[in-house]
Amino acid sequence: VSAGGIRSGDPTDGAFGAVFSARQVARVRELLARLYNARRMIRFYPSDHPAVGEALAGLMATIRAFHAEGADVPLTFFEDELLLGDQLLPEDSVMFDQLIRDMMSIGAGSVTFRAGLDESELERAVRVLSLEVGEVLRAGGLERAVAVADLPHVTFATVTIVEKESEEETDAVPGRGPARRAYSAALDLMRELERVIQRQESLGAGRIRGVARSLVENVLSNRFAMLELSGLKDHDEYTFYHSVNVSVLSLAVGSAITHDLRFLSSLGVGSLLHDIGKMTVDLEILNKPGALTSHEWADVRRHPVLGAETAASIPGLDRSSVVVALEHHMRFDLTGYPARKPERRQHLASRIVAIADAYDAMTSRRAYSAARLQDEAMSILLRNAGSAFDPALVRSFVRIMGIYPPRAVVRLTTGETAVVLAPDERDVARPTVRVFADAAGVMIDPFDVSLADEGSGRSVERCLDEDAINVDVEEYL
Ligand SMILES: [Fe+2]
Known about the structure:
By secondary structure, this protein is α+β, with helices and mostly antiparallel strands. It contains 21 helices and 10 strands.
């Protein structure tokens, strides 16, 4: 093994000839799950976040179990297959196909975790394995990245990256890279805000404003990528995703009204923080599956006031966030909560956020209700235009998102299945879609169609539940 821990070419030395016991083969599944998880944590969280340390400690423990038995852990990723030594792992190859593809894409043909590995070296190794192909190329290739990371107990066999197109060009929606970075930064901010608020510490307004500003910039320059990301949901981290989605959707509406950066960035801050009052409401109440008692309900209804107080306590924060937190449940007809005497119209930012909030909440799965499909949520917004919501803003929302918004999975009148890429200005019901399954439900080479084009010969029949038809739209975006 060379000093840099790199070995190119055929992965055939002692470790690869080793025979693994059934128990070890079973254990490697846990190892792969933990490796997959550790990469996710590293990509998602700042390096000092406890979730990163926990994920790495779990992975280390599993690797140590092999080392304690005198075995290295040689993993090979080849085509769609995964091997432990020279033993093919057919089930794991299916379960971890994303991991295999990721490893192939950065040129990691095999990775061996050898005895002597400790936690800090493992962390450096997993950081290398968490790079995206663009980052590897910028680092001067995987060999170079491995050499820099200094990994004496991790052996890589590299394969040349077959670079199809650059990262940006392979994306269905342009600007996805920067959009994704802005989106994750906003998620991180929400996670940190919750920590800080629960510990009764405070966070600088500058950081919040910086995140909002980058959401604004991306909504202005990478609008479709941002709209598509705003369809991301996470049941466990509902509040964080919800806040970021509401912010993106609000900014999309706001930017249709004005490009004034002062207004947009304060709308960005206000929408991100609209629900911070919930960070102090008992989680058990918020996630309660059944009906709330009147006491619990009263508690939930306090979140606008609590949120306004919290926002007001952050020095230097835009006043609009206080207003939005307070007003987002007041409804357009002012029959919502909290009641305000004398009555005064909701602020423009609050009216925008109320729509984005309702849409994202309806399309998310909650402890007490299933997620609604996107087209159904749109029709509920339209039905409540004039009562709960400002009708002009609802129209604007539908125009921006389309009836079938980006990331929605739809059945076409031809029987084909497609994912929506972008709405079309010409007709809110005829977006541009990427067709990926034929009328018989057979996966095909995806192709794009503008349904608003005359002669496309197709229209949308309805939205489908992505989970029910077992499709990961991420693959087609
Ligand atoms: Fe709320």
